[in-house]
Specification:
By secondary structure, this protein is mainly alpha-helical. The protein has one domain: de novo design (two linked rop proteins), CATH 1.20.1440. It has 5 helices and no strands. Helix 2 runs antiparallel to helix 3, helix 3 runs antiparallel to helix 4 and helix 4 runs antiparallel to helix 5. The longest helix has 27 residues. The two termini are 28 Å apart.
Length: 120
Amino acid sequence: MDAQKENILLKKSFIFAVRIVNLYKYLSSNKKEFILSKQLLRCGTSIGANIHEAQDAQSKLDFISKLSISLKEAKECKYWIELLKETDYLTKQEANSILSDLIELIKLLTAIIKKSKNCD
């Protein structure tokens, strides 16, 4: 457990998932939006779940695969947030706040995947 606490990617992805769950609750209760927010909930929480799975990967290729799935989910999440912003379910400020955390995750995932692919 101590190693996981020190893993910045695990920590940031969990904090992001909490923000996504709270955003889903806000969108469904206050904005009465259920379809887009459910898509966002699914992909936004999947990022961290796949990062956690990668920690117990059976091989380097499995590790890269799990992180690549996380990256794909993060990019999908970005799409839903931008769509929610453009359709006025989220203000620009609300969207940008969560997007900045998401972009940080995307950069971390991209860097780790590239480094893992180049290490032999």
